[in-house]
Amino acid sequence: MENLKIIKTQQPKIKNLTDLGFGKIFTDHMFVMDYTEDKGWHDPRIVPYGSLSVDPSASVLHYGQGVFEGLKAYRNKEGEIQLFRPEANFARLNRSAEKLCIPQFDEELALKYLKALLKMEKDWVPSEPETSLYIRPYIIATEAFLGVNPSQNYKFIIILSPVGAYYPEGFKPVKIMVEEKYVRAVRGGLGEAKTMANYAASLLAGEEAKKKGFSQVLWLDGINQKYVEEVGTMNIFFKIDGEVITPPLLGSILPGITRDSVIKILKSWNIPVKEERISIDEVFQAYKNGKLEEVFGTGTAAVISPVSELVYKGETALVDNYDDESLVTKLYNYLLGIQYGTEEDQFNWVQKL
Ligand SMILES: *Cc1c(COP(=O)(O)O)cnc(C)c1O
To answer: What is the set of domains in the chain, with CATH numbers?
Structure first.
């Protein structure tokens, strides 16, 4: 930490923390650190937010060698700033890095650097209900070389973006199209890494679904297109006949921290929850039998996102009877309560700045 250099901006931006949306504005400063083979990770610094200078041949621009994370800082009712399981995000960033041949970094140190950056930018954490400061750590390969090899140089960067409430008009169920044509990832591939390639692979399917009036697609497994995987920015859960089921982490699914938190909360509430493969046919069979009670996605951005409609091979499963007694509502309120400090943090998930 002693070697963390700080260069303050001479032109602080005018903060307008209303009508934020998602990921559109960025704070005054960012964190940057470099990697070279001889020095390892070095020169950690907080500098004014601004353009990067990378060589046009930098490997990330050609071969996509890069990984990222997404987490949030929340302002509690005392005005303090708190993080939700940030150590899990840095652990996952290192696991993603390993899959992409990116060198490991010191997770504890990275968290200290993040906290130092947040302390400088604390006035950028909005205070309106359900707003937050979105944190985007990422690592990119910067070696100037067109050969297909793991890069010898990298940059580790953290940028911050104040974001609005995900549901400005209240908790709103989404319509999802089950993807029959495209696949996102296969076992043995990059599906479990938070890497840019997975998002590139999902754009076309997402656009086609949006044209048909859906907000996202539900991916099926890449081999048989039979088993449910995830939504692409969210993991998926089904409540069937009183039991909650979510696909297991077999390598092609992103191991969501919200997913893990939801499983732990359900267990603590004594609600049966299992991580098991479930085929899309089983989901529709449960619907036809009147046993599909709830469907929801989990992820940092939306926290919990109820699904009202699933469409597959021309059939529609409608699950639109969500109310205050629904599991989705209880999970949403409880998780947000922990994140914003209005619920007791019984799992020790919160770290204050
Ligand atoms: C980030 C992400 C999620 C959600 O993970 P959280 O840790 O809960 O935010 C789910 N699926 C994919 C593909 C992701 O990239």
So the answer is: 5-163 (3.30.470.10), 174-344 (3.20.10.10)
